[in-house]
Specification:
alpha+beta, six-stranded antiparallel sheet
Length: 510
């Protein structure tokens, strides 16, 4: 049995491979992959963001599920924010970053190597340096006005001007921060000097007590059986359930209608239109969540029309940058891990000389007072992170996820469905043109954007049923991924698949 590492960046994948070669397991490797990804691609993730993970161990009845996302600070006040939404660079957009505690929770439960050994690869890379790629260079240029003069971004700018593609850069301050965390553990981040700087950077909206009290949680994952496979994902406050409910709805509809792309898109729209009514922090009332209940799914698909697209209108209840990585080792231990700064490089609020930026996951809240997802101290915002893990007869079959913010479930559906139905090559599916709905919430029309390689006959068929299609010029768009997957192929052999949509992606097989 082989070990496989898949991530959006070749240096991240190499870090995971090195950990496996040094005797570490899949979880050790995933932590190293995540640390390095945040170093070389801060426009996707980093220690200032959140994390979710699903871990499968052979012999288990369900995966372990870790929620390492954070809550809003004690001093947030939605009424003080002018406008209809929380600005991406507002101090109240910063919730407690959970990734660091998440790494230590993962390691405590599953790790085999010393945590210091896992951190060492990232620390050395910070000091030795790496080359800036196209995506990072573009992000640095976009945010030059906010980041150029910040001490936290000193590695990426010279005289407040962003460094060019291919420039060799060292992140010494971040390396020193990682050294502190490796030596002192998560307390230095949540209770020590780093915590004080985080609180100060957001004007005290996150208090020291907010950070002191933070702890990531092991929670029960969601499950749905679709086409004979058990799909697993994270519960609200994430939107992950949409992947499962929409695929299940499609399966049920396929018993009555001929399968079609129209049916797949409309099924997704039916469930996504209701997303903001169901996706929020249930806290101790998670049993009230109905998004994967069969009776809910069966009731919703009654809205489907096989002839034409339509609007799906649900009344409201009364009252970005991401990185996905997956590792499977030779013992069968597999991990589906997603970590994010949310929108691009996050809030663009840096933490003094510690060399990292804070996420803006709090923008997932709304400003509709009385709504269950209204910004409120101690609550978690709607989360777009949507990792998945698939088993059959209690045996691991596939681990798959993507970045893409609110688009994640629809991108995942397009990759998962062909596998569940035919066990077709995930590598081949990576090359097929993808579609994306920009507006999919309540009372919206079906406006679909498709990639350049999208099949012309599919466009014609969708337009005949009332979908409005826009095709981009480029064959592939990085915004439609990257998807990373590890899966069992038709020969029952394990394989890894990295997306063609980014130039830095890599699969490492040992």
């Amino acid at each position: 049995m082989n070990s496989i590492v898949v991530s959006p960046h070749h240096l991240s994948s190499k870090a995971g491979k090195k950990i496996l070669e040094n005797g570490g397991n899949a979880v050790d490797a995933a932590i190293a992959v995540n640390i390095v990804q945040g170093i070389v691609a801060p426009e996707t993730c980093g220690i200032g963001g959140d994390l979710f993970a699903l871990i499968w161990k052979d012999g288990a009845n369900e995966p372990a599920c870790l929620d390492a996302s954070g809550y809003a600070g004690s001093h947030v006040d939605g009424q003080s924010i002018i406008g209809d939404s929380i600005p991406l660079n507002h101090p109240m957009s910063v919730t407690v970053p959970g990734a660091v505690d998440g790494w230590f929770k993962l390691h405590k439960k599953f790790g085999s190597l010393k945590i210091s050994e896992i951190f060492t690869i990232g620390i050395e890379l910070c000091h030795e340096g790496f080359q800036i790629n196209q995506e990072l260079a573009k992000s640095l240029e976009i945010h030059q006005g906010e980041l150029g003069a910040q001490r936290s971004a000193v590695s990426f700018y010279k005289n407040s001007l962003p460094l060019d593609i291919g420039t060799h850069v060292r992140r010494v301050n971040l390396g020193k921060t990682l050294e502190l965390i490796a030596k002192e553990g998560p307390d230095i981040f949540y209770k020590g000097e780093i915590a004080s700087s985080i609180s100060g950077a957001v004007g005290g909206n996150l208090t020291l007590q907010d950070l002191n009290n933070y702890s990531s949680q092991w929670i029960k994952p969601l499950k749905l059986n679709v086409f004979g496979y058990d799909g697993w994902t994270t519960p609200p406050s994430t939107q992950s359930y949409l992947t499962l409910s929409a695929l299940k709805g499609y399966e049920l509809l396929s018993e009555k209608y001929d399968e079609s792309l129209h049916m797949l898109i409309e099924t997704y729209r039916i469930f996504a239109a209701d997303r903001d009514n169901l996706t929020y922090d249930y806290q101790n009332d998670i049993d009230e969540f109905k998004g994967v209940d069969l009776d809910y799914i069966e009731e919703k698909i009654k809205l489907y029309d096989d002839i034409k697209t339509q609007k799906f209108t649900y009344p409201e209840p009364k009252g970005g940058g991401t990185a996905y990585m997956t590792v499977r080792d030779s013992t069968g231990l597999g991990i589906s891990l997603i970590q994010s700064n949310f929108h691009g490089i996050g809030s663009r609020i840096g933490v003094d000389n510690y060399g990292f930026f804070l996420h803006n996951r709090g923008c997932g809240f709304n400003l509709k007072k009385g709504h269950p997802n209204y910004i409120q101290a101690g609550k978690k915002p709607l989360h777009t992170l949507s990792p998945t893990l698939w088993t059959k007869e209690n045996k691991l079959e596939m681990i798959l996820g993507t970045r893409g913010g609110r688009y994640q479930p629809q991108l995942l559906m397009q990759m998962i469905l062909p596998y569940l139905q035919q066990k077709t090559s995930v590598n081949e599916n990576m090359k097929k043109g993808r579609w994306a709905l920009n507006d999919f919430l309540s009372d919206t029309e079906s406006h679909i954007t498709v990639e350049g390689v999208f099949q012309k006959e599919d466009i014609t068929d969708l337009e005949s049923k009332g979908h409005i299609i826009t095709q981009i010029k480029e064959n592939y768009d990085a915004a439609y991924g990257p998807v990373s997957a590890i899966y069992k192929n038709s020969d029952n052999l394990w394989s890894g698949a990295a997306d063609v949509r980014v130039g830095t992606e890599a699969v490492e097989i040992i």
